[in-house]
Amino acid sequence: MEAIFDHVGIAVRSIDEALPFYLEVLGGVVEDRYTSDAPGVEVHVAVVRTADNLIELLEPTNKNSPIDRFIKQKGKGVHHMAYRVEDLDSAILEAKNKGIRFLEDTLRMNARGRRLIYINPISTDGTLIELCTYPDN
Known about the structure:
Distance between the termini: 15 Å
Helix content: 10-25%
Largest sheet: 8 strands, mixed
Strand content: 35-45%
Strand order of the largest sheet: 2-3-4-1-5-8-7-6
Shape: globular
């Protein structure tokens, strides 16, 4: 599997409070902003581009949001690293054949058409890794 770094997801309590740093200090630009109310997601997202990098600021929409649970357990900060693959289904199969475990219930298409799944942090020495592919892949 060839994986290319795609973005970093950062858990924040408030996108509006976090944005000035990414815009004014890092010179970023908001490329997109949306909300996903899907069960098990429940998040506001701001996609910020800084130079060649994408950052997703992730704000929980309610107390059932995985981002809310993450902040309560670990605090604000890096939630996940995402890697783009050519074919998500093939990448999952190849990784499973190498003993990689996934959080199966996270396989989905997001509000912008990106298919994704998270690798179980047990397989990555503690880091939550997202594999993703875009509709135009």
